[in-house]
Amino acid sequence: MTDLPPAPSGTQDTLFGEMHVRIEGQExxxxxxxxxxxxxxxRDPASEADPQIAIGTRDATHLTLTVDGVEAPLRxxxxxxxxxxxxxxxxxxGARYALVPDSVPSxxxxxxxxxxxxxxxxxxxxxxxxxxxxxxxxxxxxIGYALAAAFGTGGQPAWMMLADTVSAAIP
Length: 171
Hints:
By secondary structure, the chain is an alpha+beta fold. Helix content is 15%, strand content 40%. The chain has two helices and twelve strands. The chain has helices at residues 138-151, 158-169; strands at 10-13, 17-24, 28-33, 36-43, 63-67, 70-72, 74-76, 88-92, 95-101, 106-111, 114-121, 127-131. The termini are far apart.
C-alpha cells in the first residue's frame, strides 16, 4: 500500500504478510507492507532525544503519528516504576488502541479493550507480532508495529526493579 522502497529488514507476519519497519535515527519510524496502511511516527527534530527510547521521547507534544496520511492523537505514558506506566495509547478511525507491557519481553495490543495480539521489540526494526484469533485488521497491525518499534516492548515488574536497586546498593 506504499511506494516506499523496501526497508532494510522485513518480517513475515502470520496474518498480513511482509511487514517493513524503517527507523531513521531517533526522528522517524515508518511501517509499511503490501497489505497494511503506512503508519509514520515522527519526533520533532528540535526536541531533545532520550537515548533510552528508539523514537527519542515519550512527550506527546514532540511526536506526530499518522496512519494512511491521517493524523492520530498519541498518548505515551511517562514510563516510571510500574509496567503500566510504559503504555502507549492512540485513537484512529473511532477505535482506541493501547500497547501495554504485560511481561518482561512483550506488550499487549488492544483495540477498544479487546486483546488483539502480543508484540516483542527492542525498539529496533525487528518486531514480532503474535496474533490472538483472527480479529485483527490491517490498520491494527500497522499501528502495533509502529508503536512497538518506536517505544520498545515489555518491562520488568516493580518488585524486580526494586530487587535490582536494593542488590546494587548492597556492598
